[in-house]
Amino acid sequence: MATVEFDGVTKTFPDGSRAVDGLSLSARDGELVVLVGPSGCGKSTTLRMLAGLESVSAGEIRLGERVLNDVEPQRRDIAMVFQSYALFPHLSVADNIAFGMRARRVAKPERERRVEQVAATLGLTPLLKRKPRALSGGQRQRVAMARAMVRDAALLLMDEPLSNLDAKLRVQMRMEVSRLQRSLGVTTLYVTHDQVEAMTLADRIAIMRDGVLQQFATPEELFERPANLFVASFIGSPAMNLFEVELAAGGDGGGGARGVVARVGGEEIALPAAQAAAVADRVGGRVALGVRPEDLGDPAARPGAPRISGVVSGTEVLGSEVLVHVDADARPVATADVEAAREAEDGTPAPLAGSGSTLIARLSTRAGIG
Ligand code: ATP
């Protein structure tokens, strides 16, 4: 069983900097776990420790029952795809793919069979005789993946494998990675700084910041129940609106119970029952309130949807969506539809009510956080 376990893993470099701090997480057999976080958060170091390219300062890494800490990289049964692809320029595509098998003295007929098979899966058959310089970025990326896949390793590691591709190709290759990983059923750890890539690919996502794991959960859980403000603002595009609000008793808590309202500027926002219950003991205090831009919809269509006052500071039309930037302050919210939002002049009251889900309001505010 190719399960992976990090147990209190720490990496301290000789200069004293701690790149990874007490990391504990596990990947199940066949699972695709994405490590995500801003630059310098320790994702690559985590992957490199797993691959054996970096030593572990404290804690334990296990693959199944086997402790990997002191196992040489080539004996770990792990294949890795790098951002740079690391192809040999003087070798053909076929020889690049077969390289690892040659080194391990796999017999030639078996080598050829496996190269043909993986080339067919990845659409590389017509390119097998070419040298890497005669390939596009996407094709090189596929060769790097093919080379990792033919190894039939217990574990596949990918470090920003799509970051050198243009946006369109990245989306296409993202789907390909996902399809391949699922059809191979190989346990995979994937590093990216791109939260959209993380959300679309992962079975579970580990979000890191300054070497510390912030949350390890499914994409849905991260989106719906972020563990802290960092996760809340990192996941979701455009980012979640965060306000510092005062909690007060009021409104209807559902089932006859008294509810909780959040006061921001001159407005009161009634909290949904689940959230109200969670903060019931904080009434009178100040907390951070997060509202996803896409949840600021049409109050007529969605009774109880939060309304926050503000003034339009800019609009961006993104095809079917309109992103309205609002300077939130104490003024009441004007209601208008998407057409009005498209035409909203900067400095006018914010048309925060859209028709359907096409209006997305991103609030930047003096009362806001972050
Ligand atoms: P990026 O997305 O930019 O690649 P990352 O999340 O992968 O970032 P790491 O490369 O793991 O981050 O680096 C984590 C921290 O460790 C950074 O602060 C980095 O400067 C530091 N670091 C990495 N390698 C070394 C080293 N050899 N010596 C000292 N510090 C290092």
UniProtKB/TrEMBL annotation:
Gene Ontology molecular function: ATP binding
InterPro entries named among the record's database cross-references: AAA+_ATPase, ABC_transporter-like_ATP-bd, ABC_transporter-like_CS, ABC_transpr_MalK-like, ABC_transpr_MalK/UgpC-like, Mo/tungstate-bd_C_term_dom, NA-bd_OB-fold, OB_MalK-like
SUPFAM superfamilies: MOP-like, P-loop containing nucleoside triphosphate hydrolases
Pfam family name, one: OB_MalK
Domain ABC transporter, first and last residues per copy: 4-235
Keywords from the UniProt entry: ATP-binding, Nucleotide-binding, Transport
Membrane-spanning segments: none
Top-level division of the source organism's lineage: Bacteria
UniProt name for this protein: ABC transporter ATP-binding protein
Source species of the chain: Conexibacter stalactiti
Taxonomic placement: Bacteria, Bacillati, Actinomycetota, Thermoleophilia, Solirubrobacterales
